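User:
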Amino acid sequence: MTYSPRFHACLAEVLKWEGGWSNDPFDPGGATNKGITIGVYAAYVGAGDAGLRDDWAREELLQELRSIDDATVAAIYHKNYWQLVRGDDLPVGIDLAVFDFAVNSGPGRAIKHLQKVLGVGIDGHIGPRTLDAARAADPAAVIPQLMDSRRTFLRQIKHFWRFGKGWLRRVDGVQGSALASVTLTADARARSRAIAAWSTSAQPPLPDPDAQSATQARATRNERGGMAQSSTARASELGGGLGAGGVGIEVAKAASRARVPGGFDAVEFLLALAQSPAFWLSAGIIASAAYVWLERRRNALTL
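Assistant: Predicted structure:
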């Protein structure tokens, strides 16, 4: 059988709290495996009370319950709880809160507590009025109220002294998961609306290819001219200032070092220039300025 995604999600949460095999003498449900009591299992397989009263049949049922498979577990939860609380029709979050309540304390009781919170007639059956009220309500407000009502009921059970801490811990966990699913659903809906709005909005027309090509060509020419002019201006400024002036200063320094008594040492002059970083920097600036000027002339001739 195919089940809804919400049923699978809610069942996974319920099974987190139910655990495995248990046969606690204080548990009124008796032997239980994965939250399914021996009485519920006997009814599901058609053995009924007669099977439980017969020692041989009861032992066989206990063995079957011990080794129950996942498919049977899902089928029992779906038939005995999920369908009775109309989980697929309830809003996300409320479905989990009511479903887990039903598994723990019975579908009729869970529905009555939900109806009390919603302020509708209390009859233990979910009909159109209960569904309409649940869908109109704010799940973030309904879930905590329903869980508080459940806590009050659990504290009145005579076995609360033994199981109470575990029950309340379970209620807290289910409440947190139910509220988290409400938030996730709201976020998903907001994203869906945003995507739908974007996909249906008017898209800008595609540009004409010929017009785009002409515009690009003009932009390229302007960009080249601007780059050449700005680069040339900067290079000329540097070349004329730091470049020419720097070269002149460094040459004068090298010449002063190359003077010797009665003459001029050309080798010393060349060595002084070669060892001067400022000279090479200035010479490089002049060369760069000359290259930029020549590049500008070439671009001007090709445009």
